[in-house]
Amino acid sequence: MPLIFTAPWLLAGLLTLPVIWWLLRATPPKPAQEPFPPLAILAKIARHDQEASKSPWWLTLLRLVLAALVIFAVAGPVWKPQPITFTGAQPVVIMIDNGWASAPQWAAYENQAQWLISNAEKNDAPVYLIATADPQNTASGPFTAAQALERLQALEPRAVPVERLAAAERLGTALNNTADSRIFYLNDGLETAQDQQAFTALDKLKATTIQLIMPDSQQLFAVQGVANQQNALVIDLLRPSNDVQAAKVQLSAYDNQGRVLAQTQADFAEKETKTVAQMTIPVELRNDIAMVRADQMRHAAATWLLDENNRRRRVGLLDASNADKAHSLLSPLHYISSALAPFADLINANDRDLSQSVDRLLEQKPSVIVLSDIGRLPESTAAKLMQWVENGGTLLRFAGPRLAAAQSDTDTKRDPLLPVQLRSGQRNLGGTLSWSTPQPVAPAPENSPFRNIQLPDDVTVLRQVLAEPSPDLMQKSWLNLADGTPLITGENRGAGRLVLFHIAPDIGWSNLPLSGGFVDLLRRLTETSGAQAANAAGEQTVTLPAYRLLDAAGNLTGQPAAAQPLVIEKGKTPEASLLNPPGLYGTEQAYKALNLMKSDTVLNPLTKPEMTTNLAMVPATKAQTVNLQGSLFALAAILLALDGLLMLWIGGTFSRNRSRNFTDKASGTVKSLLILFALSASLTAAPFIVQPVLAQEAQVRDDSKPDDQAKIDVLDVTHLAYVITGNKATDDVSRVGLSGLNQFVADKTSLEPGAPVGINPENDELAFYPMIYWPVDEKAPFPSEKALQRIDAYMQQGGTVIFDTRDQLSGDTSGLNGTSPATQRLRDMLDAMNVPPLAPVADNHVLSKTFFLMPDFPGRYRGSPLWAEAPADNPDAADQPADRPVRNGDGVSPILITANDLAGAWAMDENWQPLYPTVPNDPMQRIYALRGGVNMVMYVLTGNYKADQVHVPALLERLGN
Fold first, then answer.
1. Spelled out in words, what is the top-level CATH class assigned to the domain 92-218+604-621?
2. What does 64-80 look like in DSSP terms, one character per residue?
3. Which class would CATH give 708-954?
4. In the predicted model, what is the mean pLDDT of residues 90-108?
């Protein structure tokens, strides 16, 4: 029953209430004022029969209630007494769950335990106190009542799961075969995997009775997981399976400063134990979220902590070429984008200038930057990327023809943005350093971050770039081929890392990009990027100290002394426990979140176990026991004071009316209301009486620039350009030579080019010109880094540059392998640019058939080959596979190199007479030079539309058959 009395015999005082009622009926008459004269007083002494007046019924009732309250108070009333009582001096065992699920009802648990301890004190019974989430070495008793109460006050709920089996074993050791104990188990009402073993251990203690004190029914919502997906933050929630009512849960997301960034509501349908909620907010805010919690809940499972692995990674993609942007399947970045898109936000850099592209990527603070087949980077750009890597970024590079070609110069300096030094060229199936069969992939070594990733057996590699042997190559090899050569290498740099795939990102070198293993590899690299990437890569065991931990209410606190460092072995994170409570492990700069709930956690209610011992399940009281004695005395005192005031009123003490006139008050109130009504009416009407403002005539803003007209004039007509070297004689030859070529092109084709334009590549816009002629002058100032970057960007975006060293007469006929001053200057310039593999133009090259059929490309001189990007049909080209197509700019080579002095052969005076003789002096050589120039112009303007002429013999043969 909810109400008892500690001294019920005192309730006999209620029998005096009728007597009190009888005494209260009579009320002494009011004293009367009389004149003092004695005779008048004596005259009125005569006795008359008088009837005593009675007190009002409501005053009598008030006094009876007052008397009853006093009687009830002295009887010691207690509200909601504890239902569990016992007698006898047998040991009292109080076993209490103090895990995360006990936090919402901990006050009720303490109240119940205090009652049990007070009963044990009355019966002189020893007390054993066992907490199921306490360390194994915690004292369990026996305690005196005072000691047990002190121990209970020191107990608190913990943000960990309970360990009932360990508690039962600890209790058995403490009892030491003591029989006839009474066990009272205050449990949290949830089932655990150890329950059967734990209750079996309790059954063996031979207790006289075991009472499972069940908690009151409550709504218990837990956050089971948080995923930062492409468009929203997805939150998984669960609740106990016995909670079948429809419910709503308010969720809030907080940043590291405790500020609310977003809120949403999760809805549980009837009989639904799991549900999903979403927070649709920008990725910038999602990446700042450090904690998600259910607002109504005050326990650790209602809080989910996020770390670097929950951030939505930004991945910057950069490709040096302009290959097949209209055909996504042929793009080098296609397979990378497809693999990363589901779990990362991709940033594509579209600037023509490589350095500007890198700057734009760095401004958006990516976690990973992917460089697809980029061989050379400007020094200033490389320095920026290195600084970004050392601050925690991951630079992921893919090999390709450009990267292979970049290693083939005589400069043996190691690229600082590569984890290993590469050999020049590449290794391919059927070529130098070749395999007889495609190479499969070997299992990842133990020091690799990919050690838990299983690639399909059918993944093979046809071509790769090789690493130079070094003592640390094995340590840097994260994935190898079956023959032991590295497929993926990586190393830590500062807080970040450098990673190199020794294959191209398309399917020309390997079928790895077609497999699901490619997705797994990129996902592992992306998810482990960030401040802690350097610690996670290549280590089998990572030990992280406790940084900030959750308390039982789900709040982040400081590090408790009992928390052990979190040991992650082979990438496997341990579950939350007493030694490793949920929280953040690591440092302020790099930490890992350990949460309470797992993906397979199910909250089931605790059921009655089968035991030989007398077992009972009893409910626990939700509120603490309340002693009503003080409250009743206070209420009686209030009624006593009220009785006194009523007596004064009856006596006429308050008969004089000193209140203000009600009409005056009402009048003032009405006036105030009228004023407020007038003000509100004027404010409401204001928008309708404001005079409208007439719209002014729109003015067109002139945002034109002084050189805009010149740019428009250039766009009206196709112009060829030449680079101004600063040497007047050289620049004059370039201008006159291109003028002569323009005239010849206009005579032989329908194209009428405009006057040639001299440009400064450092400042002038290059996109207006389809072809730029650059006479290499070793005496001219070396081009600036900016100029070379802009020329490099121009070539990557589809433009073509003709580099002419004009040194064929130097005696060196080996082309690019020569060592003349002009050739060395050209090599120094190309070292700063991202140049594709080159090969001499063969007889079947598209360039030799675009307009005239050209056996070679002479200028003033003859004998130097014309070098271009290695085409698909040149199997003998150095570092160039036979099946690799030339795709840049619709099949147009971005670079042409010669030493034959083309402009000198094209130069004509006003009468169409040559200005410079050819060597040897052959009139047809000049004609061939001009025809070759026409082919070059047609080639850069029309692309590979005549590539089918390569197959003319085969087509004619088929037609003949």
1. alpha beta
2. HHHHHHHHHHHT-EEES
3. alpha beta
4. 89
